[in-house]
Amino acid sequence: MGAPPLSPGRGAGAAGQRWWVLLAPLLPAMLLVRPAGALVEGLYCGTRDCYEVLGVSRSAGKAEIARAYRQLARRYHPDRYRPEPGDEGLGRTPQSAEEAFLLVATAYETLKDEETRKDYDYMLDHPEEYYSHYYHYYSRRLAPKVDVRVVILVSVCAISVFQFFSWWNSYNKAISYLATVPKYRIQATEIAKQQGLLKKAKEKGKNKKSKEEIRDEEENIIKNIIKSKIDIKGGYQKPQICDLLLFQIILAPFHLCSYIVWYCRWIYNFNIKGKEYGEEERLYIIRKSMKMSKSQFDSLEDHQKETFLKRELWIKENYEVYKQEQEEELKKKLANDPRWKRYRRWMKNEGPGRLTFVDD
Q1: 286 near 313, Cβ under 8 Å?
Q2: pLDDT tens-digit map of 304-329
Q3: Transmembrane residues, as ranges (predicted)?
Q4: Residue 143 has what DSSP assignment?
């Protein structure tokens, strides 16, 4: 026996249900789609055609567009406007003349730039791409007027100049301080006497020098000797051009390639071939274990580095023992420090969060 035939009402309902299932996913897209209209309020010349505003065709060149703009700008300029017989629409009153002048200026700004004109012509030819036109219009209108690369370059140069003068100021302060330390000042004075520099400063020529000028000159001589004899490391070292931000950015690819080559050599020599560490490699491992920067580690005295090497601190177990010893030594120093004792006594009796009431 065959299946019972469907009634007309039941078949029509099933068919309508199937169409509804097919059309349901398309409803959001149908609601979002706007009616095709090339001229949109808020974009370019609004609902007016920029070519019609200037009275030129779409094939007009830049010279023709500029000539039409100058003529209309002279005609509708608010300060020079005089109504003419036959004026209709915009331009019949001073207020409407000002609106016409702004519209003419907008049309000229749209058509004089090749990229903006391409976007406008594309909008006229493809009115259905509504949201794309909005994006291109505002992305071009809100784009920065100055090239971002120029801004970044100027900022980096300004930071580099500030770095250089700041470092140089710190270096001069360090030299001035060392010139007041008796140990270095006496040594620098002896060197200046041996070289006869102080005698030259006191020599009297045609231009007699005052005592203050002689004192300043002697001070500069001592500072120059200290600069030449003492190698300051760390945050007060002599500034180097290659340490500035600008040169660091320029040399970044070179440093990156150098680091990759150095790392590959390290893996090949010590991990694969099993070579023994040299003095430079041992100091590097010790510095990394101590979590010190290169400038901080270089500022240490030579005898400290020799102690690190003698104790073989590049070996992890030895470094852990050394670290524990340093912590114990620090605890002993703090235990014998009277200021630390007062602080612990205050924390025990008063504490940072305890409320006290004082009776008058």
Answers
A1: yes
A2: 889 999 989 999 999 999 999 988 88
A3: 150-168, 245-264
A4: S
Distance of CA 305 to the CA centre of its chain: 37
Question: Residue 188 phi/psi, 5° resolution?
Answer: -65, -35
Answer left, alpha or beta for residue 91, where phi above 0 means left and psi between -120 and 50 means alpha.
left
Token digits of residue 246? 């600008």
Token pair of 211, please? 């005592």
Averaged pLDDT, 24-41: 48
Which pair of structure tokens corresponds to residue 238? Answer: 């002599």
Residue that the structure tokens 């897209």 belong to: 29
Token pair for 244 = 């500035």
List of residues 6+ apart from 127 with CB closer than 8 A:
36, 37, 38
Cα separation, 132 vs 283, in Å, equals 61
User: CB neighbours of 253 closer than 8 A, spacing ≥ 6?
Assistant: none
Q: Which string of DSSP letters, residue by residue, matches 318-359?
A: HHHHHHHHHHHHHHHHHHH-HHHHHHHHHHHHT-TT------
The span from the CA of 107 to the CA of 110, in Å, is: 5
Are the C-beta atoms of 316 and 348 separated by less than 8 Å? no
112: its two tokens? 């004089």
With a CB cutoff of 8 Å and minimum separation 6, the contacts of 128 are 36
Q: What percentage of the chain has pLDDT greater than the value 70?
A: 76
d(CA 249, CA 152): 12
